[in-house]
Amino acid sequence: MNLSVNKGEVISLIGPSGSGKSTFLRVLMGLLPPTAGEVRIDGGRIDYRSRAQLRAMRDRMAIVFQQYNLFQNMDVLRNVTIAPIKIKKRPRADVEREATALLLKVGLAEKHHAYPDELSGGQQQRVAIARALALKPEILLLDEVTAALDPELVTEVLDTIRSLASEGITMLIVSHEMAFVREVSTRVVMMDKGQIVEIGSPVEIFGSPKEARTREFVGKILRH
Amino acid sequence: MWDRIVQEAPDFFTYYNAIFVLQAMGRTLGLTVIGCVTGFIFGFAIAAIRSTRARALLPLRLLVTLYVEIFRRIPFLVILFIVMFGIQAVSRGISLFAIALISICMVSTAFMSEIIRAGMESVPKMQREAAEAMNFGFMRTLLLIILPQAWKVILPPGFAFMVMFIKDTALVSQMGVVELAFTGKMFVGRGFSPFLVYGTVLAGYFVMSYPLSRLGAYLENRLATSRSRESIQRVWTGPGPVQSEPVGEQG
């Protein structure tokens, strides 16, 4: 598969389960070793076997997981601030000020000192988004961030992502929320069996897909 | 029996005997505490080594795994004698107490490492992954994320092991180390009533192990309550119907 992403783009990956969407994000993040192929950022090839390069790349990206993966032993504020303080070595006061602003932005200003298990799924996922943003990533990876949520909690998380999209941060989104994908994406990537089937604008993919596989998938999803 | 105990008691509970028993208790306690602390430190190191994935560390992982598997499977008494004869073959200048201590540390390291490893593995893998994606290194992940969460799984069996270990140290009396169980044998040998003597020994073990159990229970409780005021209430409401509390705002 071959995919290039421009700065500020919002790319959505869609496709049936097991088509390799999440795997792709995990490989990008260096959580799974790539078996073949290459990743370039700003034209420079990333060598995933090099610890230094891997670190440098993770420094520029952040990922939000389906299961939120907030650190259970830390309260909300510490979840958001720990990596900037401990890993990026930024001054605590600055980081906490930014974290407060981020938590306000995701609608959780009151929850600084709550622990993850005291929050609903939607709240946890919004904290996870704030945590990712606190790293000031150039690229944000969102891996089925609403898939584990109760239907009525999906909206609050999607609203948060929608506001990010309008701010021009580069995003790679894996999602099954087709209406949302259609609305926020600059381009949509249809994947199946580890391959890219088709890349196009949301209008193209959902309106007039070229490939039979895309038509079949989109037809099935949109029918209900 | 009772008459004999009453009759012998003044001769038994003398100042010098008391000092002797207390010293023996000190030795038992010393063996246990040093054994457990050492066991914890090395056990932690072993658990940490076993949690690595780098291919370069594979031989080290195999080695420590082998160590743990062997030392958990040999009876403590056998280890004692292996270590004793092993050390004495090399040098004769090492005291029995030191040999006993070395054996105890070796055994407790093996058991503690398994307790700590089980605790570390109880933390979901995804926590590790999230940390990795944020560039946490191995030690930071371990100390900031894994251990704080593993703690509550490690503590209960950890303290159960220590309490058990206080009793197991009695085996070193077999090689002639004068600890609490040894004093029992000795006083009975001097003709005191076995009920009197072993009653005292029993009290000695109880006095040492009970506070340790309480400490364990206290720490567990504190760990469960240190989080927030709600959870303190949850713990102290005791048995009875579980009250459902609103947790956060559900959407």
Give a verbal description of the structure.
The complex is a heterodimer of chains A (224) and B (251). With 224 residues, chain A is of the alpha/beta class. Chain A contains nine helices and eight strands. Chain A has helices at residues 21-28, 51-60, 76-87, 92-105, 121-134, 151-165, 178-184, 202-207, 212-223; strands at residues 10-14, 40-41, 44-45, 61-64, 139-143, 170-174, 187-192, 195-200. In chain A, the strands form two sheets. Chain A has a six-stranded mixed sheet, sandwiched between helices. Chain A has a two-stranded antiparallel ribbon with strand order 2-3. The longest helix of chain A has 15 residues, at 151-165. Chain A is globular. By secondary structure, chain B is mainly α. In chain B, 76% of the residues lie in helices and 0% in strands. Chain B has one domain: MetI-like fold (Orthogonal Bundle), CATH 1.10.3720.10. Chain B has ten helices and no strands. The longest helix of chain B is centred in the first third of the chain and has 36 residues, at 15-50. At the A-B interface, helix 2, helix 3 and helix 6 of A face helix 6 and helix 7 of B. Chain B: This is Amino acid ABC transporter. Chain B: Keywords: Cell membrane, Membrane, Transmembrane, Transmembrane helix, Transport. Chain B: It holds the Pfam family BPD_transp_1. Chain B: It is found in: Cell inner membrane; Cell membrane. Chain B: InterPro entries: AA_ABC_transptr_permease_3TM, ArtM/GltK/GlnP/TcyL/YhdX-like, MetI-like, MetI-like_sf.
Write down the CATH class of chain B.
Mainly Alpha
Structure annotation, total helices of chain B: 10
Strand content of chain A: 15-25%
Distance between the termini of chain A: 30 Å
Number of helices, where a helix is a run of at least 4 consecutive DSSP H or I residues of chain A:
9
Look at the helices and sheets of chain A and give the structural class. Answer: alpha/beta
Q: What is the element string of chain A, with H for helices and E for strands?
A: EHEEHEHHHEHEHEEHH
Oligomer: heterodimer
Transmembrane segments (chain B): 29-49, 70-90, 96-120, 141-166, 195-213
Family (chain B): Belongs to the binding-protein-dependent transport system permease family. HisMQ subfamily.
Subcellular location (chain B): Cell inner membrane; Cell membrane
GO molecular function (chain B): transmembrane transporter activity
